[in-house]
Amino acid sequence: MKKFVILGGGYGGMRMLQRLLPNALPNDVEITLVDRAPYHSLKTEFYALAAGTISDQHVRVSFPDEPRLNIKYGTIVNIDLQNNLVHFEDESTLSYDDLVIGLGCEDKYHNVPGAPEHTYSIQSIDQSRATYQTLNNLPPHGVVSIVGAGLSGVELASELSESRPDLTIKLFDRGALILSAFPERLSNYVQKWFVENGVEIVSKANITKVEENKLYNHDEEIYSDAIVWTAGIQPSKVVRNLDVEKDPQGRVILTPHHNIPNNEHVYVLGDCASLPHAPSAQLAEGQAEQIVQVLLSRWKGEQPPELSTIKLKGVLGSLGKKHGFGLLAERPITGRVARLLKSGLLWMYKHHNG
Q1: Which of 77, 124, 165, 219 has the maximal Cβ count within 10 Å?
Q2: Alpha-helical segments (H) within 123-183
């Protein structure tokens, strides 16, 4: 019996389970999913959980209830690629014949002193819960500083401005215009929304140090009742510790079939994988589809298929509950239509996975 292990029940791991169970998994393969939590978390909605506009239950989806699926709960501390073993915090181990590593990402602090100790995060559901508790327990007219004006920072700032309009929200960005990766039209639309809704944008920021309730921008001290860090990500520590080739961002270099070079039994998925596009739930799902194709061929003793480039449909972001922005087929969209599309896609995802 072959042992197939998936590390991480994120978007990619869930898509693999969908494609393999109940009928596509060969009879001589047993499948084990490893995760710390007893449910899949909708990471793209953590900003709303932290802002207090949705409940914890809203971002949880149950893992598939399939008799052929084994689930092991635990915290991974190390992967022994030489001996095909996964090591856990409780000193237990799990062996595998084929392995998919989809352990997600962590905040990247860019060596800013004090940032890990004195800022809040929305990278995990636990961290988002803690951020929610802090933000929603702030007194009236408290100051919240959000470092990083990418998609996560923008969505958190806009949602929090609706949830707690009494707060003073400052959004710090390194660039001259927020969302610099998007067309200028979208950046200007979002910037205007923030101005109209009282969110202060601090452009060309350079955070040099963080202390308790203090943020230093170009060494200028700025008081904050709470500081949330959304200024970059890096692969999980377990992946960073792997002795394999990585790109400058610390993501694992892969073959065209998504496995580690010279090891066709170990695949890397999602935020930990070096791919041509920026990490996203959509990209992880596309990669998962292709890894399933490769595995099914290899399990049959066949050569894996030639894989095409993963095509992304676009990206959607929210500005509170009524407005949004995005790119679909390279075309910018803004306003209520963008927000409705995002809400509709979320409903469809939960409907098909719940």
Answers
A1: 124
A2: 125-136, 151-163
Q: Judge whether 289 and 19 are in contact, CB under 8 Å.
A: yes
How far apart, in whole angstroms, are the C-alpha atoms of residue 337 and residue 341? 6
pLDDT of residue 252: 98
CA distances from 44 to 11, 75, 81, 252 (A): 10, 22, 31, 23
Each residue of 144-175: b (16+ CB within 10 Å) or e?
bbbbbbbbbbbbbbbbbbbbbeebbbbbbbbe
What topology is assigned to 2-36+74-106+233-299 in CATH? FAD/NAD(P)-binding domain (3.50.50)
> In this structure, are strands 233-235 and 85-88 parallel, antiparallel, or unpaired?
unpaired
Profile the chain (354 residues) by mean pLDDT over runs of 10 residues. 97 97 94 97 96 95 94 97 98 98 97 98 97 97 97 97 97 93 92 96 97 97 98 96 96 98 97 93 96 97 93 93 92 93 90 76
Q: Are the C-beta atoms of residues 151 and 186 closer than 8 Å to each other?
A: no
| CATH, domain range 109-231 | 3.50.50.60
- Contact partners, residue 79, CB within 8 Å, separation at least 6: 7, 85, 86, 87, 99, 101, 238, 242
pTM of the model: 0.95
